[in-house]
Automatic annotation (TrEMBL):
InterPro entries: ARHD_Rieske_2Fe_2S, Cholesterol_7-desaturase, Rieske_2Fe-2S, Rieske_2Fe-2S_sf. Residues 14-120 form the Rieske domain. This is Rieske [2Fe-2S] domain-containing protein. It comes from the Bacteria. Keywords: 2Fe-2S, Iron, Iron-sulfur, Metal-binding, Oxidoreductase. One of its GO terms (molecular function) is oxidoreductase activity. PANTHER family: BLR4922 PROTEIN, IRON-SULFUR DOMAIN CONTAINING PROTEIN.
Length: 132
């Protein structure tokens, strides 16, 4: 369940990771393997796409089974919440004044919908413009 926060190979172009149809279900969440990593792809309530590490760093729970809510995914085990950038935004069992969640971030990748496909970028820097 552990995964490297860096992709195995550097990407020099956008890579198709799914069809846009994969997120048309009432619960727009899908498991994806890309760049040598197991990831979770989702569309949040604002219609934005997220592609983040698939396993919660706390206990390794599969976030594909998490609750899709509050513009992110909530871990099914202890309720940690991650937004589309992979940033942990809540840790329900922590004391109210705890800020530990700010130091927790899953790997995340730029992702766009283009001509019915969902494309991801794992290269350094700003992704190139899409062709066409």
């Amino acid at each position: 369940m552990s995964q490297s926060p860096q992709p195995e190979t550097e990407t020099v172009s956008w890579v198709k990771i799914a069809s846009a149809d994969a997120l048309k279900a009432p619960r727009p969440v899908a498991p994806v393997t890309a760049f040598g990593l197991k990831l979770v792809l989702f569309r949040d309530e604002e219609g934005e796409l997220g592609l983040i590490g698939r396993y919660c760093p706390h206990r390794g729970a599969d976030l594909c089974y998490g609750r899709h809510e509050n513009n992110g995914i909530r871990c099914p085990f202890h309720g940690w919440h991650f937004d589309r950038t992979g940033q942990c935004t809540e840790q329900p069992a922590e004391p109210e004044d705890s800020t530990m969640y700010k130091a927790i971030k899953l790997p995340s990748f730029s992702v766009v919908e283009h001509e019915g496909d969902i494309l991801a970028w794992a290269g350094d820097g700003t992704p190139p413009p899409l062709a066409g």
